[in-house]
Amino acid sequence: MKRQNNRIAQIIQEMQPIMEERFRKSCKFFQEAVDNRANQIWDDVKKAVNRVLQEAAVLQKEEGKGELRYLCFSFMEYCSLLGRVEIRVDAFDSGFYLDEKEAAAEFILDFWQEQYLEDLHYLEREMEKTVIRVQNYERMEAGRVYMEYYNFAVFQMLQSMTGLVMEMVMESDADIADRFIVTVGKYMDKALILCEKRNKDEILFNGNG
Fold first, then answer.
1. SS3 call for 132
2. SS in 3 state form for 26-53?
3. pLDDT, tens digit, for every residue of 13-48?
């Protein structure tokens, strides 16, 4: 097992410059996609957020869900295995990840799917040039590592939309706590704060949201 882990670590280290170069090229596509499809992208995000807030409002009235304190955008670990860029949205009360009354939705960034799959195929070909007898689990690990680059791009996209998301939260029928936080990160893991409402009149944005 130790030898296996060492081999994977070595493969990832050798592939890192290739991944970085490929991602830099893909970034041009990301920018064009965001510029050309901004309304479509926002519609996908808005539908997911709206659904979550509506579900939360119903749960508050019918099942005693508490005031909302968190809206979390999460990257799903399984996405690299399925070859898709999917984001989960959750609305939590003070229980945070222990909140048992689930209000959640997912949206898939369809316009990035084709590019992501092209990138994976390119990386697999490059691995076969430099690595002897590439194993499936090694391809999967390389895909998982490369997904981190896409997560960063999604983070920047969501950061630019934080103001619009917060407007939806404040205008929703859900009961919102005085202190409310919007985050992005891995599902059930560490996350970065995109926006924090400390009271009715004070909202702090992390970045350009």
1. coil
2. HHHHHHHHHHHCHHHHHHHHHHHHHHHH
3. 999 999 999 999 888 888 887 788 888 889 999 999
